[in-house]
Amino acid sequence: MTEPAKTFEPATCQHCEGIGCTYCNKTGTVLVTAPKTLCKHCEGVGCIYCGFTGWTGPKSKCD
Ligand SMILES: [Zn+2]
Ligand SMILES: [Zn+2]
């Protein structure tokens, strides 16, 4: 079974709105699965499904 390589793009961390927090390693930006989509579970507020970044498929969660 082959899986297409995931691509990631930078998105502003929804938890801190770019200020920097522990969820984005203080960068204010997170790499998320492209095309970036707000987390459907929390609509960008942050929850366990999005690693509190507000985005679907944050890269850090997959590493
Ligand atoms: Zn943040
Ligand atoms: Zn979420």
Write up what this structure looks like:
By secondary structure, this protein is mainly β. It has one helix spanning 59-62, and strands spanning 8-12, 29-33. The chain has a two-stranded antiparallel ribbon with strand order 1-2. The protein starts with 7 loop residues before the first strand and ends with a helix. The model has no long low-confidence stretch (mean pLDDT 91).
Oligomer: single chain
Rounded to the nearest angstrom, the radius of gyration is: 11 Å
Q: Please estimate the helix content.
A: under 10%
Whole-number count of domains: 1
How many alpha or pi helices?
A: 1
Features:
single chain; 63 residues; mainly beta; 6% helix; binds zinc ion
Write a concise synopsis of the structure shown:
By secondary structure, this protein is mainly β. The chain has 1 helix and 2 strands; from the N terminus they run ββα.
Give the arrangement of secondary structure elements:
Layout: E1 8-12, E2 29-33, H1 59-62
Antiparallel strand pairs: 1-2
Bound molecules: zinc ion (2 copies).
Residues 39, 41-42, 46-47, 49-50 line the site of one zinc ion.
